[in-house]
Design goal:
Layout: H1 2-19, H2 21-30, E1 42-45, E2 51-52, E3 58-61, E4 64-67, E5 71-72, E6 75-78, E7 83-93, E8 111-116, E9 119-129, E10 133-138, E11 141-146, E12 149-151, E13 161-174, E14 177-179, E15 186-196, E16 199-201, E17 211-216, E18 219-221, E19 224-226, E20 232-238, E21 241-243, E22 246-247, E23 250-254, E24 260-262, E25 265-272, E26 278-280, E27 283-290, E28 298-300, E29 303-304, E30 309-312, E31 328-329, E32 347-355, E33 360-369, H3 379-382, H4 395-426
Length: 427
Amino acid sequence: MKKIKCIVAISLTLQLLLATGTQLTNLSSANFFPDPGPDLPRIYIRSNGDVEPETAPIARAGDVYKLTGNIAIRTIVIQRDNIVLDGSHYLIEGNKSWTGLAPNFGDAGNNGIIITGRNNINITNLSIERFTAGVRIYGSSHINIVGNSFNEETAVFDTPTGIIIEASSHVLIENNNFTGINGPAIFCNGTNITIRDNSLSGIVDAIDGSIAVYGSSNTITDNKIDTTSPSIRLGSADSNIIARNHVTGGISLVSASNNRIFQNNLTSIRFIFSSNNTIFGNNIANNLVLEQGTVNNTFYANAFSTNFTVRIQDAGTNFWDNGTIGNYWADYNGTDGNGDGIGDSPYTITAVKWDTTFGGDVSFGAGQDNYPLMAPYNVENKEKNNSVLPQAMPLIAGLATVSITVTVGVTSLILHRRKRRRGAKQT
């Protein structure tokens, strides 16, 4: 009865806050932070290149906009394409005591930078703190967020986030530091989004995790994620790549298919309603969880520690080798008579699941690895990544290829014209 009364009291309080904006203002005033109303005052980089207001500490040099001082409790709105916003290592600071309620995820008024419907924007050298959303990107493409720091993203009611990307493509998030954020550091829904070489610590979000990705053809590589909550989460996400990340927590896939996960160091990995994923060359310390609707996933060349546990609950058939290469199981006791690095006998997968009748976990056979490895597989030396991750053509190599193609084409055209001229003279 006390619990019900408590829930009713909380519900009535929230309804009262929604009914009157003055209550929200009073709450912020009590915390000694000015509340500017439903949204923070805005600084605009207009489509014609002007900065408004003119007193804002932003200096323009062509298409480069540099901060000349800190900005407090303001939102920067970028309305111009093809620009660089260089923070010059200054601080953009939001309202730590923001109490606004967002009708949609992350779109409360306490935003640091807003990019909507823009192309070719570069944001660098900024410190971004105390916003509900540090950078919010919607309906945009070719946006680069490189070399920034996101710290202490907090909020009272809404979920704070470092970067939110929605309905966007070709976004690069690289070499940023995220610390002390009480929500996902990066939340994105789009295509061709690259998240690489970032450092994340002190991120607290048990639902979306430190990095949450929805959409297809996205890449998460070479990040260091030091969090105990789910470190990377794919939700309704297909054909993505997660590679070479150092993860203290785990990776979670929900309704995610045809993804490639390889060369990560992590504690655990979990699948729900996820199929046709390839998990290759990872070091997984503790747990692999396969829940309902999880089928046709292939695990090979992974290294599983002595204390590793496979938990399967209502999952379908999955594969523990690729037909020639299995996994390294620390407790495998088989022999290798021909010295090819593969055990002579299969490894039987013993999994656990919760049994309602027994009222606890029970063990059962969950298939076998037909090609168990005698030692951890050295992906770097043996595969060179070529069979797993098609490498993007480097810019120099690409230019060289174009140059060669053009040269060959021009040379052929010149020889053809000379031949025609000789033929004309002979006639």
